[in-house]
Design a protein that fits this description.
Layout (H helix, E strand, L loop, with lengths): L10 E2 L2 E7 L2 E8 L14 E2 L4 E10 L3 E10 L9 E14 L2 E14 L5 E11 L5 E10 L15 E15 L2 E13 L5 H4 L3 E13 L7
Parallel strand pairs: 1-4
Antiparallel strand pairs: 2-3, 3-5, 5-6, 6-7, 7-8, 8-9, 9-10, 10-11, 11-12, 12-13
Length: 221
Amino acid sequence: KHHKGENPHETFPVFGTSFRSGTTWIEVSAFSARELTPEDSRFHPYVAAPVSGAARVRHVFGDWLELQVSGEHLHDQGNGESDTSQLSASAYAWGEVKHFRLDGLLDYALDAPDEGDASQAVLAEFALRSPSRREIAWLRTELNQREEPASRGGGVSGPWFFQTVGYEHVLFVTSGLQVGAFGELTAIALPSSLESFYGQSTAVTVNFGLHLFGMWMSMPH
């Protein structure tokens, strides 16, 4: 979860271990946090010392609620990036009411660099599925701070506000795979400090597409 923008990367080596007792999981890992740039090739991993670490604890209560907390410290990210500590916590609940499936998620994240301002984010999401599971509707609310580029004043912005509604209809299911058509609309409120850069205080995005989901199964049963 420490990637910034759209620059994912591969890191090698990664050392990890997991312990499970009943419905409790404890996971620990060590890795390199070095960030790549758009000029760096993604066709091979970048070998670096695993001097960063992360840990997570997850517990399920009564087959309806999952709580999770995780933390990590990122060292030697490169490209002038400061070392940083990150924390995230989430609560995920699910169940059925008259055969309708309900899912809810609440997630919080904090990024606290050794140098510079901290940033935070909060996400709440609710989804409803019909008894046939072929109709899905969702509602998502987000408040996100982010590091702005120098061209927009730099530093950590005030919170961006996102409000999303979406709907999907599953067209067909075969061999464990399903294809659905979906639409999603998001209304965005920009931080007041950035309105002069964008020339407006609000924006709207609309997305339509096809969703392929599931696991292909070769055996009829």
